[in-house]
Structure formats: C-alpha cells, structure tokens
Amino acid sequence: MATLKEKRTCGQRCEDFGRFIWNSDNGTLMGRTPEKWVYISLYYVAFYVVMTSLFSLAIYVLMYTLCPYAPDYQDRLKSPGVMVWPDTYGEEVIDISYNTSDKKSWMKMSTILHDFLKPYNDTKQLECNKHNCTKGKYFIQKTFSAPDHTKWACPFTQSMLGACSGLEDPTFGYNCSMPCVIIKMNRVIDFFPTNQTDLPPYVNCTILEGHNNVAKIEYFPERGIMDLSYFPYYGNLAQPTYVNPLVGVRFSLVGEKHAKIQCRVVADKISYENYYDPYEGKVTFYLKAVK
Q: Which of 1, 41, 182, 201 fits as disulfide partner to 193, beta carbons 3.0 to 4.6 Å?
C-alpha cells in the first residue's frame, strides 16, 4: 500500500531552493557547472550575433535595391484620382452648399480656398521653381541639376487661376451666385497623361442634374488646360518644390441655383469609368447657393 508523501515545511523548501542555486557538493550553479554556463553563454552570444548579422544583411540588401525616389510597384495607380476644393466631403457625397446672405457661410468656403492656395503664392513659386519651362512639352529631366541633388519643377502661380485665384475677388464668388471650385489631379510618379505632345490634359465639367440652373461655365487657365510641362512628376524627394497644376472652374448659378456636377480630367491615359473608384479621373459634387 502506497504511503502518503511527506509534507515538507517552508524551511525545507527554502533549503532545497538554495541548494538548487548553489550545490557545493557537485559544484553546480542552478544545475550546471560554471564551465557549462560559460559554454552555453558563448553559444547563445554567437547564435544571436549570427542572427542579427543575417537580419542586418537582409535589410541592407533590401534598402540597396530600393529606389529612394519612387516605389518599386505602382500597379494599382494606373490612373490618377481627381479632387475638388472647397473640400466639403461628406460620408458619400461632396456637398458645396453656402448662403449668400450669411457672411459666415460663404466666408467658410473662401477661407478653405485661401488656405489651399497658400503654397501657390506667386512670389514663393517664382523664387523656388524653374522659370524657363517650355510650355506644351513634357519637362523630362534625366539628371539632378537643381540644388541639393534635386530636380527642377515648373512654377504654378496663384494668379494663373485668373478670376478663381482669390486675388481679384477674395470671396471666390461665394458672396454671390458665381462660385469657383478648384480641380486638382493627384500625383503619380513618372506618369505621362497623353501620348501626344500637342494635346495636354484638360478639365471638362458637365451638369448631371439641374441643367437649367447653370448659365455658364468658365475655366482658368484658359480651356481648363493642365500644361504638359508639369509632367512627369518625379516624387517628393526628387522634386520637393513641386506643386500640382490646378484648374479653377467658375459657375454662373441661376434659377434654383442647385446642380449636380461632374468634372473630369480628359486625356487618353486617364480613365474615368472605374466603378469601384469614383474619384479616378473625375470628381462629382453638388453645388448649391441659397439666399
């Protein structure tokens, strides 16, 4: 018949633990002799040195093969997106609504546009960007000839937006029924919007709803052109002073002063029929003025 295991006291347990830490009979420290502890320590030091070296080598090789100026894979960016300012984006739609009789309402819209156009200040652009860009031709640069090993960028000034620049009319037309919106195409590195050098991309806005409520559409620069000299874009590291070309669009609202509008950047390499990306090549928004 098995005997019950003897219950050990707290003092005996502490004594056993102390013997495990250092056993003078066997000369072991926590179950191993000092010589074995030296061997196992050297093994783990060598193991982690080798693992750290392999990891560092892998990171070095990866970074060496990466281009710092452009991502290796851009297969998801076949066509750039398009955005509109004032950027009053809701959950599903862009609703640019304002009250011409409420200064706070239309000042909100003009303030958004003034803040957005700060980088396009004429003096700032002409100081930091190349002046002698050739209009109507791609600005292809194979070398880093600009200061600090960068590439030049063509200036796009606020005044190029004409009546939608905020210089002639600081309210951008939001104190009446002739509001301006700013259309911007997103950047894609090394993207050429067209195969031809004599046909630049341009913005075209169409009325989807409320055709009788828009009497006239005006574009700034003329014909809504995004000049080819702003392409290709070489990346923020290569072109730190680059700014996107813009197009200002002014609408003359009449009647009910409400319309659903779609603005598209037209070029043979810019698609706009992607059902899963409503902002690819185009942007749709509601424009409404109340009094």
A: 201
Task: Determine if the pTM surpasses 0.85.
Answer: no
Q: Which domain holds residue 52?
A: 28-65
Residue 264 lies in a domain: yes
Which residues, at least 6 apart from 232, have a Cβ–Cβ distance to it below 8 Å? 138, 139, 140, 189, 190, 191, 192
Amino acid 275: pLDDT: 74
Beta bridge partners of 211: none
> Same domain, yes or no, for 180 and 238?
yes
Looking at the DSSP bridge assignments, the partners of residue 265 are 203
Total domain count, the chain = 2
Q: Are residues 61 and 191 in the same domain?
A: no
Model confidence over 242-266: pLDDT tens digits? 999 999 999 999 888 899 999 999 9
Task: For residue 185, name the pLDDT band (cuts at 50, 70, 90).
Answer: very high
* DSSP line for 75-128: TT-SS-BEEEES--B-SS-BEEEEETT-HHHHHHHHHHHHHHTGGG-HHHHHHH
Q: Is the pLDDT of residue 75 over 80?
A: no
Q: Determine whether 204 is exposed, middle or buried from the number of CB atoms within 10 Å of its CB (0-12, 13-18, 19+).
A: middle
